[in-house]
Each structure stands twice: as C-alpha cells, then as structure tokens.
Amino acid sequence: MSEASASEMEASWGFIRLQRASGVAILTLARPASRNSLSDGMMADVSGALTELADDASVRAIVLDAEGPVFSAGHDLKEIQAHRSDNDRGRTYFESVLARCSALMTQIVRQPQPVIAAVEGMATAAGCQLVASCDLAVAGAGARFCTPGVNIGLFCHTPMVALSRSVGRKHAMEMLLLGEWVEAPEAHRMGLVNRIAPAGEARSLALELAQKIASKSRVPVKLGKAAFYTQAEMGLDDAYAYASRVMAENMMARDADEGISAVIGKRTPQWEDR
C-alpha cells in the first residue's frame, strides 16, 4: 500500500490519525510534542480506534506507528504528578490509569486483526510495553527501547507483563533491573522486534508485512491469532488438546476447503473469508 493510497480514507481523532486502504489500517500516535505519551486522551483514542477496526471486515491487518522522533515515552508523567495533590495522594487515579493501560494492551492482544508496530526513535516504559504487546514489530535502524522505571524509583511492573511474554526472562529482567537503552540490533536479537529497516523506513516495511497478511483468508488469521495467545498460557497437554479443537474447527471453514483444493488443483485459491 502506497502512502498516496493510504491517505484515501483518513480520519483525525484528538490524539491519533487513522487511515484505511487495501485491507490495512494505519493507526498513528499523533502527539509528538508530548512525545506520544500514553495520556488519558491518547489511550482512549487508541482503544476507540481499535474497537472501530475490530468490526471492520475490510481491515485485515493494522500498522501502529507514531509521528516525531519518539514512538512513545510511556505514561504522561506530568498527568500522573498532577494527582499527587488528590486527597488520597493520587492512589485512586494511579490504579485507574494503570488499569486502563493494561486493558489497552490486552485489547491489542485480543484484537481480531494482527497489529504490527512500526518503531522509529525511542520507545520507553509503557511505550516499550506497547511494542511488546503488538503481534509483530519492525524497528528503524536508529530505534531504541528502554524500561527505565528503576532509575526513578518506579519499577516497570506493568510493562514487565508484556515484555516477559515477548522476550526471554533473562533479557526481560536485564532491561527491567538496569533500565538501560537497548539498540535496535539487540532488540532484534532478543526477539522484541521481528525486523530491522533502514532508518525512516520502519513504516514501509511494516506495511509490506501487513499487505502479506491481508492477502490471506481472514478466517485462519483471526482463529490463529486468538489460539496462539490462549495456548501459550496452557500446559503442554492442554495446549495440544485446545489447538486440535481449534484446528478441526478451522478445517470446517469454506476457505480451508478452498485452500486445500487449490493446492491439489495447482491453482490460486479464491478467498471468501468464511
């Protein structure tokens, strides 16, 4: 999908931009002046856009990117500190904002379409959590990642959840305990990102991957994404039993019949998404 075609169906929200074209949606964090922090407004807009896209059968994959030199700096610390003067010193707000952030990350995992992060610049704290929560991630060569909470007396507890499910435990603990920058090549080696693009081209590569996904039948992609995360939390025997049930269900789909018939007939399958 070209940049020109992507602009055909663009909608502006308060904190994001949303574009649709050729089976792919691009959701752009659009508050570079605030380092695309996950403020109350940003989280509400991203969640609202994902909800809208979940019901859009024409959208088969989603690319999540950002304007400016920072992908996302995590929570809006000024917004958080403003609640220190509350009667409970901010506890109610802190619990609320963390619950809403956790709900957003879970929403990404449960989104029917695969979500691909396209990261240029820095992704820190909950911004790194956002990348780790996506199904795939592409990083520009200059991208950097960090969970720096420990440096300001605040362990990155909630980013830890997504990070520990995305990379190995030793890698996750190193990031969480040291709070140091991880450059794009190391993030790739750790498994935090899938591909590295030349600086400034993460979005283009993410769109290329999204288009490949969009060319598949919607049925196995939707079933497969949900099944992947469900079985990952199970023991081995339960995971195989569950995966077998889901695969049998998938085999009953019209597109599975069509796909197998196309292989046997040595022709290109014609998907109907059912």
Describe this structure in words.
The chain has about 270 residues and is of the alpha/beta class. The chain folds into two domains: about 5-215, 2-enoyl-CoA Hydratase, Chain A, domain 1 (Alpha-Beta Complex); about 220-265, Lyase 2-enoyl-coa Hydratase, Chain  A, domain 2, CATH 1.10.12.10. Helix content is about 50%, strand content about 15%. The protein has helices at about 5, 40-55, 75-80, 90-110, 125-135, 155-165, 170-180, 185-190, 200-215, 220-230, 235-250, 255-265, and strands spanning about 10, 15-20, 25-30, 60-65, 70, 115-120, 120-125, 135-140, 145, 180-185, 195. The strands form two sheets. A seven-stranded mixed beta sheet has the order 1-2-3-4-6-8-11, with helices on both faces. It has a four-stranded mixed beta sheet with strand order 5-7-9-10. A hairpin with a 3-residue loop joins strand 1 and strand 2 (about 15-20). Helix 2 (about 40-55) runs parallel beside helix 4 (about 90-110), helix 4 runs parallel beside helix 5 and helix 5 packs parallel to helix 6. This is Enoyl-CoA hydratase domain-containing protein 3, mitochondrial. Belongs to the enoyl-CoA hydratase/isomerase family.
Notable characteristics:
274 residues, alpha/beta, 2-enoyl-CoA Hydratase, Chain A, domain 1, 2 domains, 4-stranded mixed sheet, globular
